[in-house]
Amino acid sequence: MPETMKPDTMVLDTGEGQLRLILPAGFDVEVLQPKAMPAAADALVEIQRALTEPIGSPRLSRMAREGMKVALIVCDDTRYAPQKLIIPAIAAELQSAGVLRSDITIIIACGTHEAMGKEAIVHMLGPEIPQAYRVVNHDAYDEAGLVRVGVSKGLGVPIVLNRMAVEADLRIGIGAVDPHIFAGYSGGAKILSVGVAGRDTIAETHNPRVMEDPGTRYGVIEGNTFRAFLDEVASLVPLDFIVNVVQDTEKRLIRAFAGHARDAWTPAVTLARELNEVEAEHEADIVVSVPKYPKSINLYQAIRAANPVVFGKPPLIKQDGVLIIPARCPRGVGSDEFEQDMASAHDAASIIEKGRAEGFGPEGNKSFTVAKVLSRCSVVFTDTELPPGTLARMKFGWESDVSKALATAAFRVGASGVGGRGRIAVLPDGFSILPRLKRRDGTQE
């Protein structure tokens, strides 16, 4: 539940360390966090339970057989799931059915993100898994490694997927279920339909036509245009089995769900909603939203901490408010295209106008989305390795630490002549939370 409070300071956990946030006097402060739920007593036991009790599907040990080529499709390191535990548990099921290690390929679902290096793969999966199995990065731009499987009836866009995934006898997806700006919630078929899709498929589904469709809504899966596309792809090239997890804000496993890509994912979304959708009392003048590691790896990922602040219906932050994002971003911006799009534009409005008129490439959706954020509020990055000049060119603010940024924003709000007390919202986990503003009649939006 949200907590309205008037402390002098609070501590923000970034997933890599802690930051001290000094709260200004004269403001009402609302702290919005995912609900507290007990974590699984033993994460591995919970994963094994899910594998032995699959939803809407036989056990993997019954689906697999000797000679099958198996593709394990996993998230890259911009998203966390306990893959070090899940992959060996899945492998044990497969090998009990006679599948050889040499017939299992782990495909990192990079989408159009940069490929992971060997060191990063070892950090994500541990040293044993890359030694035991073939691990490859999906490349959305490698024509030889892609295959066209059809055209979407719903959107009319080409469906191009990773060749190894398409040609596998058994496809298994691993991921976490969190609020998602386009798909409503991540997980399920998304890891196949986008994670290992070609650049044309990604570009033509991440464009204004789809992004601004009334059915494409943050945190909403019912009637979701983007989610319908994901499921359509999976009907042509089935994702045969999934292991999806719901985790708390500390990335502790709450529950694992395994089985059919839709049937096992749906109850995972139900639990994720119970965990992450939180009632907010008021709009805020200022929001501090923390992208916890690994979302703080680069700017491309860290800016997602704006999604729950701006893209709720209605937004949590007031028009012309201030959004503060503390994010170290040791890997820099994370996308040359994103950086160039933001730096070369005159202002946020011109990015939106150009995107609607001309469309954009597979990563152009990021600047389009961020321009919508900047049309609502200013964004200040703090506690970051990103150079102030780079941020300024991309139309973001910079401050050395989160408390200084908050003090500056508080002065601006206080000096603006807005009547009554100013309001600050703090999102200690700005990736997982999904605030729902109360209506004046007391119901949620």
Would you spell out the secondary-structure blueprint of this structure?
Layout: E1 3-5, E2 9-13, E3 18-22, E4 27-31, H1 43-52, H2 60-63, E5 70-75, H3 83-96, E6 104-109, H4 118-125, H5 128-132, E7 134-137, E8 146-151, E9 158-162, H6 163-167, E10 170-176, E11 179-180, E12 184-185, H7 190-193, H8 199-205, H9 208-211, H10 225-236, E13 241-247, E14 253-259, H11 265-276, E15 277-280, E16 284-289, H12 299-302, H13 307-310, E17 317-326, H14 336-344, H15 348-358, H16 364-376, E18 377-382, H17 388-393, E19 397-399, H18 402-414, E20 422-427, E21 434-437
Parallel strand pairs: 4-20, 5-6, 5-10, 6-7, 10-13, 15-21, 16-17, 16-20, 17-18, 18-19
Antiparallel strand pairs: 1-4, 2-3, 8-9, 11-12, 13-14
Structural write-up:
The protein has 445 residues and is an alpha/beta fold. It has 2 domains: 3-31 and 281-437, Alpha-Beta Complex (2-enoyl-CoA Hydratase, Chain A, domain 1), CATH 3.90.226; 43-273, Rossmann fold. The chain is 33% helix and 24% strand. It is built from 18 helices and 21 strands. It has helices spanning 43-52, 60-63, 83-96, 118-125, 128-132, 163-167, 190-193, 199-205, 208-211, 225-236, 265-276, 299-302, 307-310, 336-344, 348-358, 364-376, 388-393, 402-414, and strands at 3-5, 9-13, 18-22, 27-31, 70-75, 104-109, 134-137, 146-151, 158-162, 170-176, 179-180, 184-185, 241-247, 253-259, 277-280, 284-289, 317-326, 377-382, 397-399, 422-427, 434-437. α15 packs across α16 (364-376). The longest helix has 14 residues, at 83-96.
